[in-house]
């Protein structure tokens, strides 16, 4: 049973607040992604968990024990860095064995654990190679094996695939997910890539400006963003300033129910929640750009001066310059930095 509880953790540098007071519970065997743009505080928070940064205040509880002010080597954690951080003069075997030697394991135990680690990451035949003889993906597998052989209670990963190409990144994150599930190890994974977070996480913690914006499953974060920041950061979203009047918002011929007090607000619509059809309504949009992604078509449509991103089926017959109707089938409305209406809830 390995749980992680952050209680009122904060971090300041002189007059700059990097992490506002936040609390977060991570369950046994859970893979949680800290997701946010550069400067959001996600890597700082991960380094606080790992002991590479000291919090200004707050508690870091691992299985109920506060380790907030313990150095990294005294914590039951292990971190996989973006840079691999491998010893270039050592073989793959020696790199993986290094931490085990420091902890005083016998030669027999070290060999057994290293061989098991190599097997776990699919590098059984690479034990005698140097890091310089490996590909980027193989080096990252060695870094992962070096951590898991230590049998940490909490595995920390700081953008481990950021330096790899897209194809390799996709493959490795699936492998890491499988390894994590096989071992049942509690994992905290930092990334700024929303696709990465959506594809591997049990839960996502969206961060901005040193605070948590929302915590939820990938499906919850995508379908029901709690703030305008989350709505705009996760996936494509049409964010349109509107005015609520007489229980409706009107956007260039599109009138949508909005049972709210009158005043300004922000309408949020996913591209896949817009339908294009024959131009037989007031909401006639001009198709100004089409990009074919193979599995779907991304369309940019202009309606009364506003541009809309629309996701259409790959079988749709749409041409640039055409005029088509634009209708919204699902939407959300934000006001005062929070969601105040979802059409699905009406």
TrEMBL record:
| UniProt main location, coarse | membrane
Keywords, A to Z, come to: ATP-binding, Cell inner membrane, Cell membrane, Membrane, Nucleotide-binding, Transport
Q: Is Protein transport among this UniProt entry's keywords? A: no
Superkingdom in the source lineage: Bacteria
The UniProt entry lists membrane topology as:
Peripheral membrane protein
Question: Gene3D superfamilies, per this entry?
Answer: 2.40.50.100, P-loop containing nucleotide triphosphate hydrolases (3.40.50.300)
**Gene Ontology molecular-function annotations:** ATP binding
UniProt domain ABC transporter: residue ranges = 4-234
- The leader peptide range reads none
Q: Which InterPro entries match?
A: AAA+_ATPase, ABC_transporter-like_ATP-bd, ABC_transporter-like_CS, ABC_transpr_MalK/UgpC-like, Mo/tungstate-bd_C_term_dom, P-loop_NTPase
**What SUPFAM superfamilies does the record tag this protein with?**
MOP-like, P-loop containing nucleoside triphosphate hydrolases
Compartments reported by the entry:
Cell inner membrane
* Family indicated by similarity: Belongs to the ABC transporter superfamily.
UniProt-recorded name of the protein: ABC transporter ATP-binding protein
Instruction: Please report the organism this UniProt entry assigns to the protein.
Output: Rhizobium wuzhouense
